[in-house]
Amino acid sequence: MKLPPLHIQSLTTGSRASIQEMTGPASSVSNDSIDVGLELARKLEEAIPSSLGRSELRTSVLPAIIQAVGQISEALRRSHHVSLAGTANLFGDDQLNVDVVSENILRDALRACPTVATVSSEEDPVERANQATATATATSESTFNEKYTIAFDPLDGSSIIAPNWSVGTIVGVWDGCSAVGLHPREKQIASVISVYGPRTTAVVAVRIPGGTQGSSCFEVAYDPNKPHAWVVTHPSFTLAAAPPFKTRYFAPANLRAAAEDDRYRQLVTNFIADKYTLRYSGGLVPDVVHALVKGHGIYLSPVTAASAAKLRRLYELCPIALVVECAGGEAVEPGDGGRILDRALKDVDERGGIVCGTASEVEKAMEVFLS
């Protein structure tokens, strides 16, 4: 996370609001009180029917994540001063106060979920035992057959939050007690990506291997006046499979790479010549969600020798890839065209590029990248 050149002050100066002031009064979410409203509860029941035996995923884990999104939204609206927190994560990235707040909200929410065994994040990239599971008694442990690992980026795009641009949260839900060394196509069973903009929305994707339900990808919206009544705004996202398209969109990230890679430069030139509409905000989540809402789009973030990979597979690429695939699109590695979800996760800091979105557009782009 690189900070933009703007007036940023450290929390240690005493001139900024404290993290406690940003989050408001201390609150906790108990496993018995996770309420996301009847509309969303019904949608989760549709995506994860009781026959799959994933009741805790449906009634506890995903609701806790979604409610945390609402709490992060409220905290961001109170965070009028974006500042350095005076700390760095284990990757060496400087942390903003809003990064720390978002991290704490999600971790507190997940502690209410006894089936969440392990949690890691881009701000604390170590798979640690979730407090709720670590302190559970043998009796309560035996109550649940489900165990999940949660990996998240609490505030993706925080480097563009100071000018009040839209940012997001990215969460991946993995089956079992770890994600490292496993194949995401088999073990990552759900993801949630949220956008904090004029409205707060969350896209939920679910695909459970071996189930007969198939995949599900839908959007819900947060109502600050009714924080426990999430509204289903898009019951199902589907990226159009093939032309004709009413409007064609492209989002070229890491555009500096075009100065070093003739193929990327040619691809961007082709988009312009073919009258594609540019939709790039600098935020991975809002740009991908734009494609979902419009039913068409391609997001590109290639990697070159001079422009090193920045996106982490565990915290960003794999959850985004699941969302895109559940909407009928494709998400591939720009280097070799392999599907992101088909490659086992090496470690928490493994990084890469991505080309994702409408399947036919991804295939056309990869013809150029692999030429």
In short:
This protein is an alpha+beta fold and 371 residues long. The chain has helices at residues 19-23, 38-47, 55-78, 97-110, 131-134, 138-141, 184-187, 262-273, 284-294, 313-326, 359-369; strands at 84-88, 94-96, 116-121, 128-129, 148-156, 167-175, 188-196, 200-207, 215-221, 231-234, 249-252, 277-278, 298-301, 311-312, 330-332, 351-352, 354-357.
If you had to describe this structure to a student in words, what would you say it looks like?
The chain is α+β, with helices and mostly antiparallel strands and 371 residues long. Helix content is 30%, strand content 22%. It has helices at 19-23, 38-47, 55-78, 97-110, 131-134, 138-141, 184-187, 262-273, 284-294, 313-326, 359-369; strands spanning 84-88, 94-96, 116-121, 128-129, 148-156, 167-175, 188-196, 200-207, 215-221, 231-234, 249-252, 277-278, 298-301, 311-312, 330-332, 351-352, 354-357. Helix 3 packs antiparallel against helix 4 (97-110). The protein is globular and about 55 Å long.
The largest pleated sheet is described as: 8 strands, mixed
Counting DSSP H or I runs of 4 or more residues, the number of helices is 11
Q: Rounded to an integer, what's the Rg over CA atoms? A: 20 Å
Q: Give the CA-CA distance, first to last residue.
A: 32 Å
**What topology, given as strand order, has the largest sheet?**
4-3-5-6-7-8-9-10
Indicate the proportion of strand residues: 15-25%
Helix content: 25-40%
Derived structural class: alpha+beta
Low-confidence stretches: 1-20, 25-33
Give the SSE order as H and E letters: HHHEEHEEHHEEHEEEEEHEHEEHEEEH
Mean pLDDT across residues: 86
Task: Assign an overall shape.
Answer: globular
Number of strands: 17
Protein name: fructose-bisphosphatase
GO molecular function: fructose 1,6-bisphosphate 1-phosphatase activity; metal ion binding
Pfam family, one: FBPase
InterPro entries: FBPase_C_dom (IPR044015), FBPase_class-1 (IPR000146), FBPase_N (IPR033391), FBPtase (IPR028343), Fructose_bisphosphatase_AS (IPR020548), SBPase (IPR023079)
